[in-house]
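A further point concerns the way the authors explain their paired sequence and structure data. Since the whole study asks how a given chain folds, the encoding of that fold should be made plain. A single example would do more here than another paragraph of explanation. An entry of this sort, consisting of the sequence and the corresponding backbone structure tokens, reads as follows:

_____
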Amino acid sequence: MQRSFATCLFVMLAVSADVALGDDLFPPPWRGLPFTTYSEWDFLTPTNPAPPDGGLPIVGDGGGGGPLANMLGNLFWDPVFNGSWISGFGGGQMHFEIPNWIDNRPLKRMQVQITYQQHPLFDGINVVVANDPTGIAGIFEDSESDIPLDPLNGLFHRTEQWRIFPNPDNELLIMNVPVDMAITQVVVDTWSIPEPTSLLLGALASVGLLLWRRVLS
């Protein structure tokens, strides 16, 4: 996923005015469609485990409660950037549990956005989608993109896109956080995608309904 220089410059200027703009820079075009979920963590408090606190989450019918983030290992909360989890010696992990739609749709799309501060001497962040209750799930990373938000302070924004199939009913997103890294915002979107036939039938039904309404009007 390539970003132009002009886009990166605009993002840097916007975030320099308000760091809170750094969390949801690239919302997926499918957000809000049927069978999508949305969760945003701004980490405004040291609550652990932490429900989303960056807007009203959109959850599926998984029946396992709402989304939840668990901070594990040597992670401590700090008010920097309006709230962040920082990794101490030995590093730590953040586990994001995303309840989803219970359905037989063949494919799950996932997008993850992370705003983080990285120490220049240590390795970068590592994200793993680690849910495979059946033992046969295929998990593939489609793309990964980092852009600088505030290079002087080491603040970056990452966007990752994933495909998971067969479609699970929930996701466990594991984020490995190396020493001296601060995670300040995380946004997770998912979409349970129907098979092409269902998509076509749904589109035809929508067009038919629109034409019927025009006839009645």
Observations:
- DSSP finds two helices and nine strands in the chain.
